[in-house]
Amino acid sequence: DADQRERRIDTALAELGDDVVILGHNYQRREIVEHADFIGDSYQLSTEAANSDAEYVIFGGVTFMAESADIITDDDQQVILPSMEASCPMAGMAEALQVDSAWAKLTAATDDDVIPICYMNSYADLKAFCAEHGGLVCTSSNAADAFEWALERGEKILFLPDKHLGTNTAYDLGLEDDTLVWDPWADDTEPEAIRANDIILWEGYCQVHERFRAEHVEELREDHPDAKVIVHPECRREVVEAADRVGSTADITQAVENADPGETWAIGTEIHLANHLDRWHPEVEVVPLCGDACMDCNAMRQIDPNYLLWVLEELVEGREQNVINVDPATADRAATALDRMLEL
Ligand code: 13P
Ligand code: SF4
């Protein structure tokens, strides 16, 4: 049962001591974040992994995050993902092989220099692809800076995989009229459309955030007229426009941390973060934007506490399970794309 599992996790952690650090993404369920040494957004967690001396980094998150942690940590540190099924569907929407063939089509359609930018939510080989073609990685907090960086070096951007983050960033920079959501396999007038637009967005999206609608914001305001609404930039443009603020999971956490007692904040992102903030900040009224509709990320949910127990007890027995190993050549190039982001 759950109590017995908790006792076994505590016993394994006591045996492993400083050899292990547990990281929990903001979207992980309560039973995982309660064991985490650090809780944060995808990028914060990678840097925590790199700053830690622990031999084993147990990553409560999804594969692309564990890969980034593996790229950033020292060679003698091992990153362990408790379930290999925890794969973000959006990261899977732009696989490097597909992007490679689309790139040939894109660059054949225009004489302009195209700079690829990929969102942190992507696999290591796509990050490596971006580095190879003069581009970089960005997170939801620095996408606008990344776009500006790219437009200083080329005339066009290919942004992938998230069309909504791309659209929201284009609006921030006043480039919305210059933006094309591109399906590389559509057989219509792509070459003309590519030549006519400087911001080309890959047709990818997060199936959790895409479910939020402007009506959810309207309904929320009817029920909570004083509420401030904050949403993640993976939401549709109409939702971002209806909200008061937009930000990464770290920004959302900070908004509630900095709220005055008695304020109401409506949270437009994965449901577990809204629930954690509600628990952590009883002085603030925290409401999920979408009422009863469940904005639950199935990929994040794969990290079951039973799997956490399993990987820990295996380590106690001297067995390493579910180690994430990005091959060194890919890791090296992906690190270049990440370093360019850090230099922004
Ligand atoms: P953050 O980078 O803001 O943590 O978001 C990750 C994510 O998966 C959003 O859906
Ligand atoms: Fe991927 Fe969306 Fe889940 Fe984030 S919330 S891990 S983008 S599917």
Automatic annotation (TrEMBL):
Task: Give its E.C. classification number.
Answer: 2.5.1.72
| First-tier enzyme category under EC | transferase
Catalytic activity line of the entry: iminosuccinate + dihydroxyacetone phosphate = quinolinate + phosphate + 2 H2O + H(+)
Q: Which UniProt keywords apply?
A: 4Fe-4S, Cytoplasm, Iron, Iron-sulfur, Metal-binding, Pyridine nucleotide biosynthesis, Transferase
- What's noted on cofactor binding? Binds 1 [4Fe-4S] cluster per subunit.
A Gene Ontology molecular function term of the record: metal ion binding
Q: Which residues bind [4Fe-4S] cluster?
A: 88, 206, 297
Q: Which GO terms describe its cellular component?
A: cytoplasm
Q: What SUPFAM superfamilies does the record point to?
A: NadA-like
Kindly list the cofactors needed: [4Fe-4S] cluster
Give the GO biological process terms.
Answer: 'de novo' NAD+ biosynthetic process from L-aspartate
So, what pathway does this thing act in? Cofactor biosynthesis; NAD(+) biosynthesis; quinolinate from iminoaspartate: step 1/1
Localization of this protein: Cytoplasm
The entry's iminosuccinate-binding residues are 25, 42, 119-121, 140, 232-234, 249
Q: Which family does it belong to?
A: Belongs to the quinolinate synthase family. Type 3 subfamily.
Q: What does this protein do?
A: Catalyzes the condensation of iminoaspartate with dihydroxyacetone phosphate to form quinolinate.
> What NCBIfam families does the record tag this protein with?
nadA, PRK09375.2-4
Q: What is this protein called?
A: Quinolinate synthase
Organism of origin is Halorhabdus utahensis (strain DSM 12940 / JCM 11049 / AX-2)
Q: Which gene encodes it?
A: nadA
